[in-house]
Amino acid sequence: MELLVHGVGGTTPQEMLGDPRVQRITGDDTAACYRRTDDADAEQRPDDYRTEPVREAYCWSNLTSGNGARALWLVLLPFMVANLAHWMRPAAPPDHRGQRIYDLLVRLLALTLTVLLAAAACEVALDLSAWQCAGTPVCVTGKSWLGFLNPAGGGWWSTPGRRLVLASLLPLLVVGFLWWLSHRTWSAYESASPPPRRPGASRDTPAHERTALGLDGFWYGRRLVARLRAAHTAAGVLTIAAALLVASLRADSRAGATALTAVGRTLTGLVLLLAAGTLVIVWRTARSEAARDEETDRLAVRALPYAALAVLALTAGYAAWARPAARSHGPLPGVAAFGGIAVCQSVLVLALVVTAWFLQRAARDETRTALRGMGGPAVALLSCAVAGVLSGGVAQRFADWIDGPATPGQDHAPIPGPPVVLSWQASVLPALLVVVAAVVVLAGVRVLAVRKRVARDVPGLYDPRERPDVLRTERIAGTIARAGLTDAAPVLVAAIAAVTLVLGAGAVAGAWLTDRAPGRATEGAAPFVHAAAEAAESLGSWLMGAGVILLLTMGRRAYRDHSARRTIGILWDVGTFWPRAAHPFAPPCYAERAVPDLTWRMATWTEQYDGRLVISGHSQGSVLAAAAVWQLDLVTRSRVALLTYGSPLERLYGRWFPAFFGPPALTGLHREMDDWRNLWRFTDPIGGPILLSCEDGRAVDEGPLRDPLAFGRTLQNPLPAQILGHGDYQADPVFDRVRAELLARLGPGIPAQRTNCTGSQASSGRSSA
User: Fold this and answer.
1) Within 13 A of 255's CA, how many CA atoms are on the CB side?
2) Where, if anywhere, are coiled coils annotated (predicted)?
C-alpha cells in the first residue's frame, strides 16, 4: 500500500488520488483515509496489485481548518508561542538535571501569561469602566450602558465596590470561555490512544533506548492538560479576586473599618493559600512520555478551580458591602501589578537563558541548532511581548474610545487611563518596529546579492543550446534567493528578542521611576525630546490596537483563502503540531489525533494482511508521517518505507527542535525502517535536505531537483515551465523514479536493518550549496 499524507493547506482526496470517485475507508468527517472507488476492495483482489500498490490518502485538513470563527484562536497566539518554547530545549541527555528545570521555568512563564490575560480583562472591565469612567460624571455622561452605575444617581450599584463586583463578571466570562474551549478541544484532540503493543517488539524495550517521539505516552496528553487547565483556571479566577480585594482593603484602611479589614485580610490569606496550591500543581505537573499517563487526578487538583470560585464569591460579597464614604478616584489600586508581571517574566526568561546554556553545553553534535540553543528563551520572550501588545492594545484602544475626544492620562482628560507601564510599553513599540524594518531591509539586500551570485550558475543547469534569457534567469535566481530567507529566520528572531528585552526593561524602569506616561514625564525636557516622547506614545498606542485587528484579520483570511493559508499556515501548523505541555489554553495539537490515526492504520493494515507499505508525505505531512513511523514497533517499522518531499524535518524542526528532530533522532529513524528518500529544491522556502547518509552508498536526499523543469520554450515544452517551489513535486520525473525504487525494495521478505547511518553536513545540502 502507498499511504499519501498531504501538507499545509490541505488537499482533497480526489486531487491526491487523481480520481473524482473516492470512498472513505476508515475515519470520520474530521480526519479519514480514502481510496479510489475501484480500489475499495483491493485486499480481496491481491493479484491485481502485484505491480502497483493500493493507493490510500489520509486527509487531516479539517483538524486545522474550518470556518472563519477559528480566526479567534489567534488571540491565543501568546499561549501557543510559550508552548513552543517548551519543545525548543537543546538536545542534552534526558537525565540531565537542567531538563526538569527548563520545563518548570517554561510552565511558570506560561502561568504568568494567564495571569496577564486575566489582569488585562480586569483592567478594561474593573479599572477603566467601573472604577474610572463610571465614577466620573463627565465620562459617564452620554453612556447609557453605564448610567445606572453613576454615583450621582444614588442607585444600589453606584458604590465603587458594587460596581467592581458587577464588572468582574466580564473577566470571569473570559476565563470561563478559555476553560470551556480547552475542555472541548481536549476531549476531541487529546484522547486518542496508541496502538496495542506486540510482545517482544520495541515498545517493550526500556524507554531510555527509544527516541522521545517513539515513546508510548508522547501523543497522549489527556491527564496533563487536565491538571494544567485546573491550575490556570484557578490562577485566572484568583487574579480577579485579588483585584477586588486590593481596592476594598484600601478603602477599609482609609476609613478605619477594623472588622471589614479583618475579613479582607482573611480572604487575602485564602487567596494566597490557593495561589500557593496552584504553583505546587504547576510545579509537579511534568510530562510523562514513557507511558500513557493514566493516573487519576487527585481531589485537590479537581477541586482547586471550585475553591477559587468560592473564594471569589466570598470576595465579591466582601467588596459589595456598604461603604458610604468610599469613592473611586484615580487608577484602580493594584494596577502596578502589570509592572510586577513584566519583571517576573523577565526574571524567568533570564533563568531560562542560563538553563538553556548549560543544556546546550551538554548537547551532542548540534552544529545546526538555531541560535545555539537559545531558540527556546528567545521564543519565550516573544510570547511575553505578544501578550503585552495584545493586552496593552486592547486597554489603550478601549480607553481612547470610552474617554471620547480627550487623551487618557493628560491633564484635561476625564479619566487617568490605563496603567503607566502600558503607556511606556506602547511607546517603545515604534523603536522595535524600526529594528524589524532594518532587519527586513538587510534581508532584502541579501536577496539581491544572492540573486546576483546565483544568476551566474542558473544557465548551467539547463541545456547549453538554449538561448539565454536574462529575465528568466533573474526570476529563477530571485526565487532561490527568497527561498533561502528561511535559513535567516534565526537572525530576525534574535534581533527582535534582544531589542524586546532591552526596550521592555527600559519601559518598566521608566514607568516606575516617573510614575507618569512618557509624554507627561518629559514635559521639562528639551522640546525635541518631549515631542518625540509624545509622538512615540501616541503612535505606539495606535500600533498596539492595530496589531490586535491585524492579527484577527490575518487569521480570518488564512482560514478562508487557500493561498493565504499556505503562506501563513506553515507557522501556525508548526506551532500547533506540538502537544500542549506548558499552557492548557493554547490552540489544540492536531498531531495528537493525526499521529495515532496514521500509526493505527499502518500497524493494523501491515499485521492483518502481512503487507508492506510506503508512506508518502508532503510538507507538514512528512512530519506527521515520520512521527507516526516512530510510534511503530520494530517489526512493523521494518516493513515501512518513507518518501518525503518539500519536508521541513531538518530545515525547521531539526534546527529549532533539536531534542526531538536532531541528527541522532533522524539517524535512528533511518536505520530502523526499510528505506527513506527525500526530495527537495533550492526554490522551496519550506522544504530542504535531511542531511543523512549511510555506508551502503544510498543517501536519503535526492536533489536539489531542477526547478523549473525547462529553462525556455522547446519542442517538448512550447510554453514556459512554471517555477514550482514548494508544490507539485509529483510533476518531476525524479519523483516517479524514486517512488518506483522504494516500491521495488519492499519485497516479500522483511528487510534487514541497516546500520552505520550518520548525519552528514557535507552532503548535497542547502547549507553546503
Assistant:
1) 17
2) none
